[in-house]
C-alpha cells in the first residue's frame, strides 16, 4: 500500500509508533482486536461493535448502547504500557474503515458547520465567517444564529483547510485519514470502505467468526454520485480545489480512491 506513494515512510515498524499516533485506536483484549476509528466513516457503528465485544456473551443488541462516542467502556490502546501496545500492535488483528476523502469532507461540513452545532460554531463557525465571509461580528448565541440563518459556506470551509495559517493538526472530523490511523506505520489486516460498508462488514464478521452472533445496524452508506460532489465543489475555484487535493492526496492514493480529475481540471 505505501510502496505506491512516493516519498512516504515505508517503515511498518512497531518501534516507530508513538503514543500520539494511537489516539484513535480502540482495543478489545478478549478477541485480540484493534480498531482505528475515523470520524465520518461509520465510526458509530464500529464503536458499538467494540462495546458489544467488551460486554461479552451473550452479545447485546448494538442499538442498546445509547452512549457511544464518550462511553467510558471503550478501551484505548494508548492506555497500555509501551511494551503492551507494542505486543498488541504486532499480534492483534487490526482494522479500519475509510471513505472517499472529498465526500468525507462534504459529510463533515454538513454535519458540523452547515447547521448549528454549539461547540463547532463557537470554535470554527464564527472564525470562518469573520475570516473568509466578511462578517465582522457574526451572531454569537444560538437564538441569534438561528434567526440570522448565516453559516459558513462550503467554500469558506475549503478556504480554511487550505489556508497556510490554519493551525495543524486539523480537527479529527476533517483531518486526513492517514494522519489518524498511520497505515504506513501500522500494518492493518483489514481495511473496509464506506462505499461498500454492508458487504465489507459482513465479510469482516465472517473472518472473526462472529457473523452468526452479531448483527450490526444498517449505517448510512455513501451513495454520493460524482454529479453531487461536482455540485458541492462548483463554487470552489479550481486553484483552491487543487490545493485541497494536495492536502488529501495521501488518502486518495493509500486507500485506493481515484484522483478526482473532473474536479481538478478546468
Q: Find the structural class using helix and strand composition.
A: alpha/beta
> Biggest β-sheet, characterized?
4 strands, mixed
User: What's the rounded overall pLDDT mean?
Assistant: 91
Strand order of the largest sheet: 1-2-3-4
Based on Cα principal axes, name the global outline.
globular
Rg computed from alpha carbons, rounded to a whole number of angstroms: 20 Å
Helix content: 40-55%
In DSSP terms, counting alpha (H) and pi (I) runs of 4 or more, how many helices? 11
**SSE topology string:** EEHHEHHHHHEHHHH
Total beta strand runs: 4
Low-confidence stretches: none
Distance from N terminus to C terminus (CA atoms, Å) equals: 30 Å
Bin the strand percentage.
5-15%
List the helices and strands and how they pair.
Elements: E1 25-28, E2 33-36, H1 43-55, H2 82-91, E3 93-98, H3 101-112, H4 118-132, H5 142-148, H6 154-162, H7 178-181, E4 190-193, H8 197-207, H9 226-233, H10 238-254, H11 261-264
Parallel strand pairs: 2-3, 3-4
Antiparallel strand pairs: 1-2
Word description of this protein:
With 266 residues, the protein is an alpha/beta fold. The protein contains eleven helices and four strands. A four-stranded mixed beta sheet has the order 1-2-3-4. Helix 6 crosses helix 10. The model has no long low-confidence stretch (mean pLDDT 91).
Quick summary of this structure?
With 266 residues, the protein is of the alpha/beta class.
What key attributes describe this structure?
266 residues, alpha/beta, four-stranded mixed sheet, 11 helices, 7% strand, globular
Amino acid at each position: 500500500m505505501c510502496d505506491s506513494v512516493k516519498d512516504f515512510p515505508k517503515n511498518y515498524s512497531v518501534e516507530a509508533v508513538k503514543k500520539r499516533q494511537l489516539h484513535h485506536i480502540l482495543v478489545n483484549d478478549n478477541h485480540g482486536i484493534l480498531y482505528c476509528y475515523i470520524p465520518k466513516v461509520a465510526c458509530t457503528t464500529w464503536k458499538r461493535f467494540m462495546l458489544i465485544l467488551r460486554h461479552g456473551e451473550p452479545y447485546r443488541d448494538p442499538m442498546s448502547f445509547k452512549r457511544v462516542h464518550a462511553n467510558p467502556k471503550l478501551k484505548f490502546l494508548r492506555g497500555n504500557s509501551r511494551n503492551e501496545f507494542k505486543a498488541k500492535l504486532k499480534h492483534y488483528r487490526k482494522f479500519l474503515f475509510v471513505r472517499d476523502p472529498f465526500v468525507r469532507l462534504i459529510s463533515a461540513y454538513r454535519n458540523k458547520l452547515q447547521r448549528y452545532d454549539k461547540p463547532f460554531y463557537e470554535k470554527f463557525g464564527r472564525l470562518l465567517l469573520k475570516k473568509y465571509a466578511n462578517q465582522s461580528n457574526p451572531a454569537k448565541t444560538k437564538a441569534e444564529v438561528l434567526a440570522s440563518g448565516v453559516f459558513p459556506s462550503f467554500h469558506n470551509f475549503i478556504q480554511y483547510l487550505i489556508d497556510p495559517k490554519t493551525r495543524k493538526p486539523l480537527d479529527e472530523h476533517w483531518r486526513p485519514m492517514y494522519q489518524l490511523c498511520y497505515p504506513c506505520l501500522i500494518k492493518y489486516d483489514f481495511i473496509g470502505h464506506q462505499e461498500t460498508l454492508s458487504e465489507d462488514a459482513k465479510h469482516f464478521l465472517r473472518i472473526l467468526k462472529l457473523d452468526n452472533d452479531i448483527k450490526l445496524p444498517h449505517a448510512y452508506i455513501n451513495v454520493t454520485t460524482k454529479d453531487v460532489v461536482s455540485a458541492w465543489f462548483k463554487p470552489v475555484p479550481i486553484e483552491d480545489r487543487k490545493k485541497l487535493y494536495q492536502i488529501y492526496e495521501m488518502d486518495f492514493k493509500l486507500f485506493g480512491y481515484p484522483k478526482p480529475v473532473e474536479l481538478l481540471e478546468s
